[in-house]
From TrEMBL:
Residues 148-165 have a biased composition (Low complexity). The keyword Acetylation does not apply. Pfam families: NfeD, NfeD1b_N, NfeD_membrane. Residues 402-457 form the NfeD-like C-terminal domain. Keywords: Membrane, Transmembrane, Transmembrane helix. Residues 270-386 form the NfeD integral membrane domain. The chain crosses the membrane at residues 12-31, 262-285, 322-355, 367-390. Residues 139-165 are annotated as: Disordered. It comes from the Bacteria. Residues 51-140 form the NfeD1b N-terminal domain. The keyword Membrane applies. This is Uncharacterized protein. It comes from Nitrosococcus watsoni (strain C-113).
Length: 465
């Protein structure tokens, strides 16, 4: 046991693996005990693309506000939109929250586009800072070849009227989004007509226009101004109506914890894509070279992180299957000679799978084309290098076995009547010659029978070694 324990603990990568496991297990333990948040407002910053990390961050904070008695939740937003699944999870939490939620587009110059507009409509109170905007809520994940939202077939003209299937799918997606945002508008008493226009025509509004059209409730330059204008407002939440008392309310910023930051990092499509490639190639290298350990450890960790990211991302199973098939074919080319057929087919499958891997077109959630090309070229280059080395190895002279002895040059070390001893490659061999030879003469092997060599004298002009 002692040697095994010493080897195990002396490897630094085992310590890294153990630390990661403890880090993940530690996430299940609360970082701090519950505290009384009565009379306070929790401030959450929703910046950048809305994804799984954002919904987890908001859901965790809302659960905290419910258990610890916060009086208000402020979502300070500056977002271009994001994933539909993450947006709907956030809206469900907002609609079910017994604590009033304020959607606040700030600071000046910020926006709440696409998914951010839906969240603003779902919030109990919608506010904007000057010089901000919201809108452009048209679903971007539409079938290829469909008509733009403004040119869609008018409602009432269905498939029977000759509407192409792709246009029908586009109309279904748009109509679903319209019904969803109009339902939020009715519940919060906001402008339904403009909500529909934001979806069908990708319309946008400035803060002043949004206030005039009753899309938002107020304009506030900053958080203190926002609290002053919220004071005394009646808000309907789950469980009844609340009168806000925001004068002298304490603001507590809530930062994303390590789990949210880790999820936000690995859930980025490019990062998840790289982690998957590192994981797969690490395991392939470990299986091809057993005992290295480090590639296997790094590959396993990377692959697990990639699978976790794919769990929360809208992954196309066909794209993932094509990628795995392509990598398998390219790896098989190394072991199964197919004159490049497996390698070329694997490269094509790999690129096609990478292109359709993510079943989403939300901003910030596409795999970079440059990354796909770089990965494909690197894989093809590696495959070409392996095939080139294999081809060169076939052309090299044999360095062991019977074939290696034929043509080898040695020196006569002893001569008897019909036998002699020669030294070849540092070894002494019994030999016979059909021509006269002398002690110390250089000879070349012409035949090998058992352990006896047949040699002939090597003339000076014929020496090659």
């Amino acid at each position: 046991m002692e040697p095994f324990f010493f080897v195990f603990t002396s490897k630094w990568y085992f310590w890294i693996l153990g630390s990661l496991v403890c880090l993940f297990l530690g996430g299940a333990v609360p970082a701090q005990q519950n505290q009384n948040l009565a009379g306070t407002a929790l401030l959450l910053d929703v910046r950048g693309v809305i994804g799984p990390a954002t919904s987890d961050y908001i859901q965790r904070t809302m659960a905290k506000s419910n258990t610890e008695g916060a009086a208000l939740i402020i979502l300070r937003m500056d977002t271009p939109g994001g994933l539909d699944t993450a947006m709907r999870e956030i809206i469900q939490d907002v609609l079910a929250s017994p604590v009033p939620v304020v959607g606040y587009v700030a600071p000046s110059g910020a926006r709440a586009a696409s998914a951010g507009t839906y969240i603003m409509y779902a919030s109990h109170i919608a506010a904007m800072a000057p010089a901000t905007n919201l809108g452009a809520a048209t679903p971007v994940h539409l079938p290829m070849g469909s008509q733009p939202p403004g040119e869609a077939t008018p409602p009432g003209e269905g498939e029977e009227a000759g509407t192409p299937p792709k246009d029908t799918l586009a109309r279904k997606a748009i109509n679903d989004a319209v019904a969803y945002i109009k339902g939020l508008a009715v519940q919060r008493g906001r402008n339904e007509r403009w909500a529909e226009k934001a979806v069908r025509e990708a319309a946008s509004l400035s803060a002043q226009e949004a206030l005039e059209m009753e899309v938002i409730d107020l304009i506030a330059q900053d958080i203190p101004t926002l609290l002053k204008r919220l004071d005394g407002r009646n808000v309907k939440v789950v469980g009844g109506e609340i009168t806000l008392q925001t004068t002298d309310m304490t603001i507590i910023p809530v930062e994303p914890n390590w789990r949210d930051r880790l999820l936000a990092m690995i859930a980025h499509p490019n990062i998840a894509y790289i982690l998957m490639l590192v994981g797969i190639y690490g395991l392939i290298f470990e299986m091809a070279n057993p005992g290295f350990i480090l590639p296997g450890v790094v590959g396993t960790i990377s692959l697990l992180l990639a699978l976790y990211a794919f769990q929360v991302l809208p992954i196309s199973s066909a794209g993932l299957a094509l990628m795995l098939l392509g990598i398998t074919f390219m790896a098989a080319e190394v072991f199964v000679p197919s004159f490049g057929a497996l390698g070329i087919g694997g490269g094509i499958a790999f690129v096609m799978g990478s292109v359709i891997l993510l079943d989403v077109e939300a901003p910030g959630y596409q795999i970079s084309w440059s990354l796909i090309v770089a990965a494909a070229v690197s894989s093809a280059g590696f495959l070409y290098m392996v095939l080139l080395l294999a081809a060169r190895s076939q052309q090299r002279p044999v360095v062991s076995g019977r074939e290696q002895m034929l043509g080898a040059v040695g020196k006569v070390t002893a001569v008897a009547r019909d036998k002699m001893t020669v030294r070849i490659h540092g070894e002494l061999w019994s030999a016979q010659a059909r021509e006269p030879t002398t002690l110390g003469q250089r000879v070349r092997v012409t035949e090998l029978e058992g352990l006896t060599l047949t040699v002939k004298p090597e003339l000076e002009e014929d020496l090659h070694d």
